[in-house]
Amino acid sequence: MESKTIAVLVLLSLCGAVMCQNNTTTTQTPTTTVITTTTVPTTTATTQQTTTTAAQTTTSAQTTTAAQTTTAAQTTTTAQTTTTAAITTSNTTVNGTTAAAVTTTAAAVTTTAMATTQAPPTPKPDTKYEVIGENGTVCIVAEMQFELDIVYNLQAPQDATARQKVTAANITAGGSCNEGVTTQYLWLEFNEGINGSWTLNLTFTNQVSYDGVTAQAATSYKLDNIELDYVIDPNYFDGPAETDIGKRFYAEFKPSENEDTAVNVSASQYYTCSERLSLGDADDTQIMFTQLKFQAFRDTNDADFKGQEVKCDSSSTGPSGLKDYEIAIIVIASVLAVIIIVTAVACCARRKRKDYSSL
């Protein structure tokens, strides 16, 4: 009985010891970390530097007397825009120290509007010309553009020639109506240079034909002759012979020899051709017309084309003097000739191949 009592006491003692140990572990004191933030006040030395800087800014503001130069802008007659920045005053307090007020005035800015002038368009050259008679009537009206293809002698190599295309410039027109006469003239002067200007003289002739049946007269006219008078001028020719410089040369063209211009036009009609016309020998000097239109032997005071137009042949001539359809025929014939030759060669080659295979 006593042994049991002793055993129970021992167990109770052990349990008490364990409980004491647990109470000691759970009652640990927590660690608390205290963070202390200390604000360092701004030193008085820094405040003094700020005050000193503000004083320097105030001194700079005193130099704003440059704004007085805006009086020069008042003398500007053109539109001007003057912009003045608003006055800004700021007081800054740092640790009880008040910085000086800073005043800034921007100098007046004057903007002068400059007018932009566009270059005038290049005027188109005059292509319409008229001849006025003594009684005030416009006897000839013509429109045209023309280019010259002139053969001339070169300085080097000796006895060599070249072709030079020359475009007429600064053209002035004149002429003669020759009232009561069957011939009228249109003169064109252009390309002023050494030894005077170049001239192109167009001669129109008038003829009267009678109908044997009705005995009525019919009047018609045509462009009968063209004469060119030009000067060998280095301004228009490349490397001309020195012995020819300044000399005048003459060339004549016969419109009656060209089926496009050998047209008799009734007195109540006018001639027009929008194609390119070439007059002259292909191996010599030529003149090329484009947009050619004329009416002669008129008796009105205006310069409008009257009556019905008479058109040239629709086929034009090129620098070679050939018609477009003539050039087309030559091209087609050449192509056919090439095809025939190629076919003949192919047949011969095939026949020879058969002969070799038979052997």
Automatic annotation (TrEMBL):
Annotated membrane topology: Single-pass type I membrane protein
**PROSITE patterns given for it?**
LAMP_3 (PS51407)
Which cysteines link up through disulfide bonds?
A: C139-C177
Tell where it localizes: Cell projection, Dendrite; Cell projection, Growth cone membrane; Cytoplasmic vesicle, Secretory vesicle, Synaptic vesicle membrane; Early endosome membrane
Principal location: other
Gene Ontology process terms (BP): establishment of protein localization to organelle
A Gene Ontology cellular-component term? late endosome membrane
- What PANTHER family does this protein map onto? LYSOSOME-ASSOCIATED MEMBRANE GLYCOPROTEIN (PTHR11506), LYSOSOME-ASSOCIATED MEMBRANE GLYCOPROTEIN 5 (PTHR11506:SF35)
The record's family statement is:
Belongs to the LAMP family.
Name the chain's protein: Lysosome-associated membrane glycoprotein 5
Question: What organism is recorded for this protein?
Answer: Lingula anatina
Per the record, the gene is: LOC106168095
